[in-house]
Amino acid sequence: MKRMWLYCIAVASVAIITAMFIVFADDTDNINTEFLSSFGWRVSPRSIEQVPVTLPDTPDNIYNDYNRLQKEAGLDLTPYYGSQAIRYTYIVLNYPIDITDSQIRANVLCVDGRPIAGDIMTVSSDGFMHSLVFPH
After folding, report:
1. Would 10 be classed as within a structural domain?
2. Within a domain: residue 135?
3. Mean pLDDT of 12-22
4. Is residue 12 predicted with pLDDT exceeding 90?
5. What's the rounded Cα separation, in Å, for the pair 113 and 12?
6. What is the 3-state secondary structure (H, E, C) of the chain?
7. What's the pLDDT tens digit per position in 67-107?
């Protein structure tokens, strides 16, 4: 009887944790897709990748260049240097130029569950990366 109780508690705990993860993930995806939408991007409703990122305390040339992209979109990484972040990646559904060789991705960098930065890029080796500003 004691084993049955432990089993029921374990199953219930896993179910609750799973449900909380799903709700949190859905919430994050909704926040991120709304963020991208505010720049004109239509993306897949769910991220296809989530990667932890540690922003450096002192930016190097790569982060300085990346922050220049952010500033083009009215964003700034400066207050977040030294923070832990998560990069969420989405498939872009409305890129205005037909690119048949590769898919276009939107990355959103979040700190404490809030979008703070992002970019649009291709996954091809000869691709590009640009700010979240929608090209016209």
Report:
1. yes
2. no
3. 41
4. no
5. 27
6. CHHHHHHHHHHHHHHHHHHHHHHHHHHHHHHHHHHHHCCCCCECCCCCEEEEEECCCCCCHHHHHHHHHHHHCCCCCHHHCCCEEEEEEEEECCCCCCCCCCCEEEEEEEECCEEEEEEEEECCCCCCEECCCCCC
7. 999 999 999 999 999 999 999 999 999 998 766 556 899 99
pLDDT > 50? residue 42: yes
Range of the domain at 35: 2-130
* Confidence label for 10 from pLDDT (cuts 50, 70 and 90): very low
Q: Edge to edge, what strands does the sheet with 129-130 contain? A: 49-54, 84-91, 104-111, 114-122, 129-130
pLDDT of res. 2: 67
Q: Identify whether the C-beta of residue 109 lies closer than 8 Å to the C-beta of residue 85.
A: yes
Which residue, among 43, 60, 57, 64, has the nearest Cα to 115 in the 3D structure?
43
